[in-house]
Structures are given as C-alpha cells and as structure tokens.
Amino acid sequence: MTDILWQPPATHHSDTRLSGFWRQAEQAAGVSLPDWRSLHRWSCDNPERFWPLVWDVCGITGEPGDSVQQRDGAFHQRRFFPGARLNFAENLLQRRDRATAITAEQEDGSQQTLTYAELFQQAGRFAAWLLDNGISAGDRVAGWLPNRAEAMVAALGSAWIGAVWSSCSPDFGISGVLDRFGQIEPAVLLVTDGYQYGGKWIELDARISAVVDALGPCKLVQVTSARSHRIAGATPWEQIQSATTGLPDFCQLPFDHPLFILFSSGTTGKPKCIVHGAGGTLLQHAKEHQLHGDLRRDDTLFYFTTCGWMMWNWLLSGLQAGASLVLYDGNPAWPDSGRLFDMAATLSVTHFGTSAKFIQAVEKSGLQPARQYDLSAMRVLYSTGSPLLHESYDFIYAHISDSVQLSSISGGTDIISCFALGNPLLPVIRGELQCAGLGMDVAVYDQDGQAVIGERGELVCQRPFPSMPTGFWDDDGDKRYHDAYFDRFPDTWAHGDFAELVAHDSHDGLIIHGRSDAVLNPGGVRIGTAEIYRQVETLDEIRESVVVGQDWEGDVRVVLFVVLQPGNTLTEALCQRIRTAIRSGATPRHVPARIIEVPEIPRTVSGKVVELAVRDTIHGRAVQNVSALANPEALGHFSGLEALKH
Q1: Is residue 327 domain-resident?
Q2: Measuring CA to CA, how many Å separate 498 from each of 446, 447, 459, 615?
C-alpha cells in the first residue's frame, strides 16, 4: 500500500478557507510563499502580521488594540493583544437564526435540538440568573454534567458575564471531583441526578451530597435528567430558563481574561488547574476550525468527548464558525460498535472526531462502517488521545471512507488546542500528522537541545503562542507553571511528547511516538511506547496492551502487559508471535523481556492508559492519586507479580 492515502482535490487549492488565507498572507508578506513550509515559516517569524490576519479572516468580534505581542519577559509572560477587548460568548453567538446550533443525542436515543436563536436566548437567561445571584467576572462556575446541551449553554452564559467555566463528567468519583473543584472553589455548581452508560442508569445523589458538603457554600443548579427527581436546595434549570427578564449586555474583557479552567490527569498528584484565557482560546480555535479544518456554516461537527476532556471545549468553539454541533453522551459502542457511525450518517456529519483507541476497537469488532452506513457527507475524520497506529490509517481508508481527509491531531489540555493537526491542502501520509499548526513554531530537540529532523526527540515549541495558559490556579510566582514546561530547555516549551519530524518536498510531517516521560530506555536506547503498541495491537488475539520499563540489574527491561480478546489464552506460541511481530516491525531492542496477561488496564476517566501508574506499581511505589483513575482497582493486577522477580 502506498504511503500517500489521500490527496486534496484540485478544487481545494482555490475554494478552501485556507487557500484564501494563503493568498492574503502573501499580500501581507509582500512576497510569494510558494509552498506550505514557507507559509508556516512566515506565520512563525511574523506574529505581528500573522495573528491580526487570523483575527480578520476568521471574523473575530472585538477590539484588537494597538499591539499584537508584549515582547518583554520570559516565554510564558509574553502576552498577545495586551490592549484587546472582547467577549468569548459573543463571538460564538454571532449567528442568531433558526439554523441548528446543537443536536445532543443520549445513549437511550433521546435528542435535544437547539437553534442558534434558542441557544442565544438560553445562554443569555443563564447569564442574567448568574448576575441576579451575585456572580460576577472572575467567579467560577462548575459543571459536573453529562455531555448535554445544557452544559454548553451554561459555559456560554458564564463567559457572557466573564465568569470562569470548569467542568468534569459524571463518571468522576467524589475524590476526583473534589481534587478538581475543591481547588477552584466554584460559586455555582451544576449537577444532574444521574446518567446512562452501557444500558445502565447510574444514580448520583449520594455523590452529589458528599461533594456539596465538602465544597462548602455554593449555589446549586439541577439540570433535569430522563428520570429526574428534585435535589434538595438546587435551583431547577427550567426555572432559570422560564425567567422573562431582559438579557444582559456582553461583558467586554481583556484578551487574557480567564475563560476556562482545565485539569491535568492528576496521576502524579493533585491535578494541575490550568487557566486559559478567552482571547487565546478563541483565536487559536478559530484558526484550527476554519483554516486547518475548513469548517463552514453549512457543516456539522461532532467529537466524541465528555465534559471532562479538552476536546469538549474545542468542540464548543465550532459555534464561532457558525457550524452545527453534534453531542453524544453514553457508551460509544452501545448497543454495538456502529452507534456513532449510525448517528453520523443520520445527521450528515461532515467533521467526525474520535480517539485512536475507538478506531482500533471498531476494527477489532469486525465492523466495516462504509458497508453499513452512508458516510458520504463526511469530509474530515479527526483522531486524537493517543498516537494513531499506521494500520488504523489503512483501516480508515479501506473500511470507513476512501475519500475522507484523516486529521490525526496532537496538542492537549495544556494548550487547549493543537501543536500538529490536519491540512486540507496537503496529502495524508500513512502514520503521520499532516503538519504543525500555523503560528506554532514546533521542533523536535535531541537530548542536547539541538533541533533535529528525521530523528526522535522531545516535541517543543520555540516561540510563544496565544493559547498558552495564562497560569495555573493558585500558583504564586508561576513556579509550577514554569516547572511543567520550561525546566527541560531554556525559554522553550517542552510538551512531553516523544516525536519525530519527517521532511517532505514542501512540508514537514510529524510522528508521535508516545509520551516522553514514558519512554523506554533499555541499554540506553530511547524507545517510544507507541512503536510497540503499533506491532502488538494489530494481532487479532490482543484487545489492548500497556508497556513499561522495569529497572533490572542496573538497566531497564521492557515489560508488556496484554489484555486478550475473549476466548484466547496467552500461550507460548502467542508470546512468540508477539515477539516476532515486534522484532520484524520495530527492532530487537523493542522485544519485551516479559509478556504478562492481565484482565484490564488502568485508565484515567478520559480513557487514557496510565503507563506511569503501572510503572510505579510494578516497582512497589505508591501511585500518588488513584482518584484520577476510572478503574483504580486494575492496579492490583500489576502488584507483586512473580514473573517480574526473576
């Protein structure tokens, strides 16, 4: 199979939003920018011209002020548009007609639909209620909610008055919620009494009581569920929405006024509370949606996410482009692995987003979506959360769509956006992210801090960008913020990914080999975990796996844990097949010294495999924050294993 899996149609070079932006960039530059590499370099070298052009082309509402970037201070202190005034909610609610803004589908098949006009009214009513209850700019509003329309309405209503929104999903336990919201002390907490997952109804009453008691004084709002019963002391959502008072004016605020507080996974201690500003989030998301994603007013954007993952915030910003959003709450494989594709076909989704693990699970299930569903409307397929296997690229083009633009994207909670993502004007090459984002000066450094191409190293960003955090909550002097990203290389953002830039004639692609803090180091050779997963998880007998390094006799040995598909056992013959696949597909150094079967693998509540927690457990070290895990009991499968004692 050829490495080039998709080429942009000839029309893309004239009628995409990115092609129009490119022509305007050449006018602004006063020179020809003949290929993507030259356009990207210009965008990084000339922030004073690039970011105002993004502001104008993407239709940002607000006053940009007289300067683009404050150049004094350290990397993380160099602010963008210091004189700007804008409102995030106003920008997402510019469209106020009868076009569908949000379709929210629940696992049980029920749907909510809001037009842009209805969304504007409901967000405005919530903003008015907040003001009437003494909530003002800078106060925190928290949602412990399913992925329903009310969560987005509440986030917009909070931004309307300058309150700071933070959210997590209802599958978080009491400790997980308190580890997050307990740090930021919300003035308002939105809850619901239960949610559905995997065909079961999960009641939340006891958890809500415990959380409210621990948080202390805050106003409680209840969002109605399918089986709702009143929660004592809570204001019903319907009561807020039935108010007839006028809507307040949008509060015009500085570019860096706090908009969202997101949380790190918290597997090495209490989650970091990462504060993101309104202007940087808005500008970066507009660039990513409209230019890199070619998202338009007549498009429909879906991303499978919960309110506890930054992709929810990214999805919300699709409203700025005037697109229709699709939400889904529940098990994405209920009652079968075709659920999301059925929904995408029914709602004519043009931009479909999911995780790399979901794509693998669909392939393992034997489903071939292209045969069963009409996915002709789908133009872009997004994947993130972990590196997308090369073989998953093949599966997508063979069995989902042979014409879709596959956009594997990488960034995260830390930047509420992407360092690398898709591009409607570049080919899709097997195993690669198409390009670095415009304005993002991405490089790969070796261990000496030298930029390299075609070699594996640390993913870095060499210059400031608008969606940097404005800081961490309650981090006096920005010490934790600095330590998180700037300790490794002087005045350079080190993201924590083990990556590789791949040079092509007109652009550079990117391969993510896993998290750099989980890199294996047998015999002093650095190995990305994704390189092993790629070989192992293509075997039919393997459902999923986790690989870690075990300290052993003055070195590190590779240990592979596997979860088998039902009906299989870990025989010596299967172990040999695994070793052979890894040796032939990677190198002999990648071959694990031990292969061990486990019934399940620990994950965070957002679904990410926690390699570091497994590594700590096999070494007898305490995992610092098990409340960050969706299934902390799974760690018991890795403790005191006889196979790791010899």
Answers
A1: no
A2: 10, 11, 6, 18
